[in-house]
Amino acid sequence: MSDIDDDSEIYFSVKFLGRIQVVRPGGMQILTDAVQALQDPETVMDEKMKKTKVHLFVTRTAIDILEHKTKFMLYSCSLPSVSFCAVHPTLPKILGFVAKHPAADMYHCYIFQSKKFSHLLVSLIGDTFRAYKQEESLQGDRDLVVEALRHKNKVLERENAELKRRLQANGENAGGDKNIYENESDLDQISSRSGQVRFFSEDDKTPLHSNF
Questions:
Q1: Which fold does the domain 11-134 belong to in CATH?
Q2: Which residues fall in a coiled-coil region (predicted)?
Q3: Does the model's pTM come out above 0.85?
């Protein structure tokens, strides 16, 4: 086992026995059948390895398998794609995990051998997976809160705009009524100053009086 400078990544030196396509995303029977298939010399597989030594990196977001000497990336499995991880029930040095193919609807079981760290590796992968899911859930909750606040802000903006529109409308109506009242007052003042209604024409020079 080795640690690197970044504490978010841990890697183990283990033997990679290979990977095999499986029919289900998990289960101990899937692991035992996959190990048995790898040990069967008649099994035809593209990814059957000869106990290749690799670095197995466990990060916060993925499990990476790198060739030991060249550091060439053999496989990289994102944590969300991992569906099962366990130590073989009768072969304690053998461990494996199942992950979904990133571009196809299929699953592969990746099988390793470690003399000392098989149980530790499985425990670490499980803890990392749970931590990832918890962080993902918290992020989802934060996104929901942000979305709710955005929606509330939009509702308040619409309510404020409607209130502003109503206030402006009420102000215009109040101004129009005031002008009407002022005009009516002017008429009253004119009427009060004179009770006479005058008709001017060439034929009628006599003022007509109206009693109010």
A1: PH-domain like (2.30.29)
A2: 146-173
A3: no
